Amino acid sequence: MNTGTDDLENLITLLAKLPGLGPRSARRAVLHLIKKRSLQLIPLAEAMHRVGATARECLNCGNIGTTDICDICDSEKRAIGQICVVEDVADLWAMERSQVFKGRYHVLGGTLSALDAVGPEELRIPKLIDRIKSEDVTEVILALAATIDGQTTAHYIADQLPGITVTSLAQGVPVGGELDYLDDGTITAALNARRSI
Amino acid sequence: MNTGTDDLENLITLLAKLPGLGPRSARRAVLHLIKKRSLQLIPLAEAMHRVGATARECLNCGNIGTTDICDICDSEKRAIGQICVVEDVADLWAMERSQVFKGRYHVLGGTLSALDAVGPEELRIPKLIDRIKSEDVTEVILALAATIDGQTTAHYIADQLPGITVTSLAQGVPVGGELDYLDDGTITAALNARRSI
Q1: Is the pLDDT score of A1 beyond 50?
Q2: Are residues B89 and B146 in the same domain?
Q3: Which of A19, A93, B4, B37 is most open to solvent, judged by the fewest CB atoms within 10 Å of its CB?
């Protein structure tokens, strides 16, 4: 990098490791931060310290929060008998942004994968089965990726939960999507799941 | 964002303000950092604290370092009588990466701009004139952008330095550049500055 000082080079190297950043954008970010030292650099350092000290996985669902049991699991309002199963915390956040799901979550931490030797014990599947016994669950909604691994995981989970209503997200044309740009699989799924209007 | 905890949302909001990052990549970065807490999150927070506490502009040239006079200005080896004038610190770093310039720098902090009401006093131009009187300067190399504002600034500086050799970077075809993709201006400049081989 050759910026002349070790502290700066160290900061650039660390920032460049973030997903979505490289050496060039890390250098730009560092210069930007130094120009806005009191408004951005110091608050950012403090926010990182705080998150580093407090962030932890919820013991119940696997969401990331600052307490042993996350806000969602802790809220009585969300105990509506629905558990939405997602692959990771980013998916949970995406669901929360849509503000459409009112129940609780369960973060698997990945998908089953024979190639990567990921079995049910590596994921949070046993914990899910425990929760369904202990919480008053009426429906498990599988919000997993429409990939081979995601669908394998969905089928495995459905097999483990006899007697429970297990649903999965609908497949079809995305809102705003143009048919011309959609792949064959999506069009097939959307046609098969067509409904009368 | 709705991640469920204020600390996390605060960190995401701050990260999303960095150039090159937005809310989506900031969320990805935060999840990545939490997974690599001891290897990346904590060191990054500490590196930011250190830079926030120590980074300052060199009183002589405007480079960013951790001392009042930067390493380059402080090095006797770089006192070869050449001063390279650049617009900002990012340009200085770019010059240093090429490792071809052995002299000292002068960071203007911007370019003259009538539209943005940036005059010579807003830049570090008076300080440059002082330096040329006090240091033993034989050549001033203007490494400014090939834009209207950059070239205006270059001409203004050249006018302020009678009796000093003032040069500017050559214009021409970039290394690896294909003629087909070059603009007319660059081809014109390269043709006018052609040389025998």
Answers
A1: no
A2: yes
A3: A19
Write out pLDDT tens, residues A93-102.
999 988 899 9
A-B Cβ pairs (cutoff 8 Å, strict): 168
Q: Could B50 and A7 be called an inter-chain contact, meaning their C-beta atoms sit closer than 8 Å?
A: yes
Mean pLDDT across chain B: 89
Give per-residue burial for A130-161: e unless 16+ CB within 10 Å, then b: ebbeeeebeebbbbbeeeebbeebbeebeebe
Domain count of the fold of chain A:
2
Residue A189 lies in a domain: no
B7: closest CA of chain A, how far (Å) = 6
Residue segments in chain B with a per-residue pLDDT below the cut of 70: 1-4
Whether residue A64 contacts residue B35, with contact meaning beta carbons closer than 8 Å, is answered with no
| Cβ separation A44–B1 shorter than 8 A | no
Best mutation site among B25, B44, B95 for testing chain A: the one with the most A CBs within 10 Å?
B44
Asked if the structure places residue A100 within a domain, the reply is yes
Same domain? A43 vs A83: no
pLDDT digits (tens, 9 = 90+) for B88-128: 999 999 999 888 999 999 999 999 988 888 888 889 999 99
Are residues A83 and A164 located together in one domain of the fold? yes
Give CA–CA dist B46/B145, Å, rounded: 35
Residues B110 and B161 in one domain: yes
Average pLDDT over residues A20-43: 92
Is the separation of the CB atoms in A99 and B6 below 8 Å?
no
The single residue listed with the structure tokens 């302020």 is: B160
The DSSP line for A86-129 is ESSHHHHHHHHHHT---SEEEE-SS--BTTTTB-TTTTTHHHHH
pLDDT tens digits, A131-182: 998 888 999 999 998 888 999 999 999 999 888 999 999 888 888 878 888 8
> What ipTM was estimated for this complex?
0.81
Host domain of residue A123:
79-168
Q: Which domain CATH number covers B158?
A: 3.40.1360.10
For the domain that residue B32 is a member of, what is the CATH number?
Answer: 1.10.8
- Residue A125: inside a domain: yes
Q: Are B37 and A55 within 8 A, CB to CB? A: yes
Q: Which residue of A has its CA nearest to B56?
A: A34
How far is it, in rounded angstroms, from Cα A95 to Cα A195? 24
Is residue A175 one of the residues assigned to a domain? no
